[in-house]
Fold:
Amino acid sequence: MARSTTERKAIRSLVWLLVIIIALIAANGASVLFNNGQWTPKLALDLEGGTQITLSPQLASGETVTPEQLERAVAIIRQRVDASGVSEAEINTQGNQNIVVSIPGEPDDATRERISSSAKLEFRPVLVADVPSTDAIDQEGAVDPGTDPSASPSAPADPSAAPDASATPDATAEPTPSASPTDASDLAWITPELQEQFDTFDCATVNAVGANVAPTDEPLITCEQDGTRKYILGPVEVEGERVADARGGLITSPTGVTTNEWGVFIEFDAEGTTQFRTVTERLITFTDVRNQFAIVLDGSVISAPRTNAAITDGRPQITGNFTEESALTLADQLKFGALPIGFEIQSSENISATLGVAQLQSGIIAGIIGLILVGIYAFLQYRALGGVVLASLVVAGVITYLIITYLSNQQGFRLSLAGVAGLVISIGVIADSFIVYFERIRDELRDGRSVDGAVESGWKRAWRTILISDVINFLAAVVLFVLAVGNVRGFAFTLGITTIVDLIVVALFTHPMMQLLARTRFFGSGHPLSGLDPMALGAVYRGRAQFRTPAGVTSTKVASSSKEAQRRQTIAERKAAQLSGEGKDAR
Structure:
């Protein structure tokens, strides 16, 4: 026997649901086989334990850490940890100067580097440059007006921004001391004591604690990161916190052709743009090494490019010996803002779970109890339809589990006790959608529709209600996730996921199952145990506690809308019908 259009649609929806489940299983399987994933979600700090990293500030003699600096550093480190895919991390202050970062599990090298690399960025003018060895030196880059690496190759770059191949940045400028420095490029900063320190300075010590730290209003002796040059740099003229955005990409040549050289493209805020324009306008007047502008990251020079033009738009690019990985890493660090002070790892140790597996088991037991109670209520209220409720909850649980496991493997999501609470609460949220749908079906049966007609009409009315309810729940979860920190975000995250899953299950499983069940003899005939018995549900209400028996409807009326299928009578029409009936009885 050929299937009806309704049956074909129901089967198609169930097939799509099966495809989604198979795709999630395949994605998790690929993570297990090729990405060291696992079939169970990773647990958060409160359930599994992890690693505690203590960061201490790198301060020059006499410097102190302010509470505002610590608060800003905590916020930036939290952004970096979240961006690395680590979920449920805790970042707090310790005492008046240290920062404690607690991460679930064992962090990988990239995460440790992201935390320990403080990315304290400074822009200082070069006063003196020297070569500490006879090794070959790579040609320096240049400070160029920002050239978008994604720009069309046909758009030519500013010719004045081209690197000067004949420049000799290794030349050393002779100090000409004066009474007091007039600007950051004034050689009066170089005192005899500073010159002596520079002459004896060993680039091998540049990474030693305190060796490359100086107050922002004083000159700094430091070296290139690879140790091939050493510098005397003037005071800081642009702070790293003035960086509004940064991204890594391939550099575009002056002719608009994308090269194979990687760089970092910076965008300053309004104040930084003004500061950088003032500095570059001064530097272009020099022809010696003071034309260079050192970009100092954590006390080491990552690039000292020449200044070929005044940067007036606040969009310079950093060039140098970047690889794709180093350019993207630096851009990622700078994008979240430079720390107000530098930090180093003071200690790293394993910590035990604050709650433990016992609390997780309690959460799971609570979920099972909630599921049982929902099942009992469903069978008492809806008879055999309770089986549809339980089946829908099981499908929703499978999809939710697969999604959380995939996010755990691919995005670093970790399940905390708060997240488990979100999953438990979602049982009620999902069950509420089924109740709305079933009650709409019952309303249609009370209006005299057949079971299959009531399923279709009830779905049209219920879907709008379910959709609005879930959208509100999802928006609440999003707001909570954005505004909250720590474990509360885990609760909001799981609640948001289950809300989306609810819509998928109701549309692709619950409704199609009802369409198929309505065509069976047990449900279609309104068996007393089916939960869809029109007689048990009552007749159409007519006022003054009077009801009438549900009227049968033709197949044509079932296919039409509710208003067309059976038009409700007004009070006047009912009275007229009663009078007419009484007159017939009298005759």
